[in-house]
């Protein structure tokens, strides 16, 4: 009651829905609230015959507090709800979001939704991290860091207030849950069959224990962990290559087309000649070659290199499971880049720098590009890629390379050239005369050099850009017009930088 008084405008005038653990709990809450003079009711399977009347009284404020048991998870639309009370922990993120959604409907005169979550001493296994991640959205920081710093990256107009004791308890829960050391992972694998009848594979293991690929592939592979868990040998041929590809390259790559291409290659036992003979397929095959070997190998052709990759059946099986998990997790729609039909990258997908350099034709089967600058140009194709880090730290960038790059709006991007570039220079003129000379500018953007788990981030291909205008010299500040809107999560990150 003290919290209702503290966090609502008038606790006697709210329309609050409280989610309870049981029918007995709902009845108890109704009685307690009525005892102190508040208009309350419960709605459960026992009195569902009165449902229409109870909801009508709730909408017209004859009832201010309605206590329910899962009955309002979905399918009920009462936009008047302005307060949600979580009186029980829920293991299901889907149910949590459904219950939260009961209060997120717009309604005249309702300017905010107040959510009070009385978490109590939930089990250590309770998933607070994913719950808060769903509320915060995609950020470049961990949920733990967001909580410690009082949620600096919430959507505008939102706030989350944790009382001191709740904050300490939740942080301890998250630290415990995310401390996935090798011993703990092995113990989970050994106990898997005690927790489910599902077969032990990567997808089921991650789902049952609510883990992510990063928990395994930061330092291990699934094959190596299973081997130690059951004292069972596995094929270690090219182990370091597989481990690096899964834990450094693919962990930061997000492209349905690229991953599906690899799956199709697995199906034909890595025989590229059995797939459609087109340039984009050969380029994606070379991207895979680079993912695995890190660069050209003397006297090892593309086809022979792929064939060798497919010889370790244990890891080919793990690759397949890994890719299926990655594809299932991708929540955006890739957009084909039709202006360059042979280009193997899709707009809004995320790629490593090495993958991009292969796609641009700068890294080949004979020679790896040494490019590590903010731009990469293939003069034969009349194409130039711009690589942008939205957040630049002094640790990773010198004062002369802390360029001012950000999205002005969803289709206009502000970019600073390299320091030596002036409007009169050949490079500067190539930007200014871009459309006249039919030069293609491709923009690749990432939030920062590393993500919150210290993985080197991939770049999001946000598509072709056209020159609009510029100002200044050495460096030039150029505005580029994007063909496609920047993805919402990058726009959110970049918009913060543009306003300081």
Question: Which shape, going by the Cα principal axes?
Answer: globular
**Count of DSSP H/I helices:** 19
> Which sheet architecture does the biggest sheet show?
8 strands, mixed
What is the percentage of strand-forming residues? 5-15%
CATH superfamily of the largest domain: P-loop containing nucleotide triphosphate hydrolases
**Helix content range of the residues, please?**
25-40%
- Average pLDDT taken over every residue: 88
Helix/strand-derived category reads: alpha/beta
CATH top level of the largest domain is Alpha Beta
Stated plainly, the CATH topology of the largest domain is called Rossmann fold
Number of domains: 3
Number of E-type strands: 13
pLDDT < 50 runs, ≥5 residues: 396-401
User: Distance between termini?
Assistant: 40 Å
Any idea what the radius of gyration is?
27 Å
Question: Which CATH architecture of the largest domain?
Answer: 3-Layer(aba) Sandwich
Protein model, in words:
With 500 residues, the protein is α/β, with parallel strands linked by helices. It folds into 3 domains: 2-178, 3-Layer(aba) Sandwich (Rossmann fold), CATH 3.40.50; 180-234; 373-498, PUA domain-like. Helices cover 38% and strands 13% of the residues. The protein has 19 helices and 13 strands. The strands form 2 sheets. Strands 6, 7, 8, 9, 10, 11, 12 and 13 form an 8-stranded mixed sheet that branches. A hairpin with a 4-residue loop joins strand 9 and strand 10. The protein starts with a helix and ends with a helix.
């Amino acid at each position: 009651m003290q919290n209702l008084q503290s966090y609502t405008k008038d606790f006697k005038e709210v329309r609050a829905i409280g989610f309870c653990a049981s029918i007995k709990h709902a009845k108890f809450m109704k009685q307690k609230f009525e005892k102190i003079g508040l208009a309350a009711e419960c709605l459960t399977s026992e009195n569902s015959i009165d449902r229409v009347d109870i909801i009508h009284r709730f909408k017209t404020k004859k009832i201010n507090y309605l206590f329910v048991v899962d009955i309002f998870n979905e399918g009920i639309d009462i936009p008047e709800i302005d307060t949600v009370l979580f009186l029980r922990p829920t293991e299901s993120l889907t149910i949590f979001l459904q219950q939260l959604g009961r209060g997120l409907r717009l309604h005249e005169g309702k300017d905010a939704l107040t959510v009070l979550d009385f978490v109590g001493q939930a089990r250590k296994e309770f998933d607070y991290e994913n719950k808060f991640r769903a509320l915060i959205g995609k950020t470049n920081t961990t949920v733990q860091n967001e909580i410690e710093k009082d949620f600096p990256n919430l959507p505008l107009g939102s706030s989350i207030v944790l009382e001191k004791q709740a904050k300490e308890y939740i942080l301890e829960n998250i630290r415990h849950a995310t401390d996935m050391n090798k011993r703990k992972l092995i113990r989970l694998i050994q106990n898997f069959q005690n927790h489910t009848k599902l077969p032990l594979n990567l997808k089921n293991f991650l789902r049952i224990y609510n883990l992510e690929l990063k928990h395994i592939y930061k330092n291990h592979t699934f094959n190596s962990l299973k081997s130690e868990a059951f004292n069972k040998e596995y094929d270690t041929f090219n182990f370091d290559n597989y481990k690096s590809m899964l834990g450094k390259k693919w962990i930061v790559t997000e492209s349905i087309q690229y991953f599906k291409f690899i799956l199709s290659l697995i199906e034909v036992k890595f025989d590229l000649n059995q797939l459609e003979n087109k340039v984009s397929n050969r380029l994606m095959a070379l991207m895979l070659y680079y993912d695995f070997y890190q660069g050209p190998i003397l006297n090892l052709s593309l086809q022979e290199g792929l064939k060798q990759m497919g010889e370790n059946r244990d890891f080919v099986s793990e690759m397949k499971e890994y890719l299926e998990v990655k594809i299932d997790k991708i929540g955006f729609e890739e957009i084909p880049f039709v202006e360059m039909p042979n280009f193997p990258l899709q707009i809004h997908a995320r790629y490593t720098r090495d993958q991009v350099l292969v796609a641009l034709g700068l890294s080949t089967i004979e020679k790896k590009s040494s490019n590590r600058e903010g731009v990469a140009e293939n003069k034969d194709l009349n194409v130039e890629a711009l690589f942008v880090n939205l957040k630049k730290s002094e640790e990773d960038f010198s004062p002369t390379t802390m360029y001012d790059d950000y999205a002005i709006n969803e289709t206009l991007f502000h970019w600073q050239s390299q320091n030596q570039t002036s409007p009169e220079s050949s490079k500067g003129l190539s930007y200014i005369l871009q459309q006249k000379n039919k030069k293609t500018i491709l923009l690749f953007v990432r939030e920062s050099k590393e993500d919150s788990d210290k993985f080197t981030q991939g770049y999001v291909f946000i598509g072709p850009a056209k020159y609009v205008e510029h100002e200044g010299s050495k460096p030039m500040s150029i505005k580029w017009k994007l063909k496609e809107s920047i993805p919402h999560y990058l726009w959110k990150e970049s918009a913060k930088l543009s306003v300081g």
